[in-house]
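If you are new to this repository, start here. Below is one unmodified record pulled from the training split, so you can see the exact layout before writing a loader.
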Amino acid sequence: MAARAEDFTIEQLEQQSESKAFSRFLKVYGEQRKNEAKEEGDVILNFGKHKGKTFDQIYSDDQGYIAWFCNQPSTPYNKRAKKYFMKRIEEDYDSGDENGQKRG
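And here is the target side for that same chain:
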């Protein structure tokens, strides 16, 4: 049976690579694998202005950024965050309030 990437730790894969680009890829991939098990709001953004903050922190702290972020084209890197932010917006503002007031 052939070995799969999931059978190795990120550190083991990094040791086998001499490519700096591949090492950076593995670092990002490793962070994504760690984040897969977390609750969506606890996932840490690993790029951009709010790198290192959880989705919940960003949503609570910077509504202007959320508006900007959600209007950006979807990419493999931002897809999960955009989905989470749009879900939170729908939960918070889908009350039919014509004034755009947040629920709760």
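Two things worth knowing about this chain: The mean pLDDT is 77. The radius of gyration is 18 Å.
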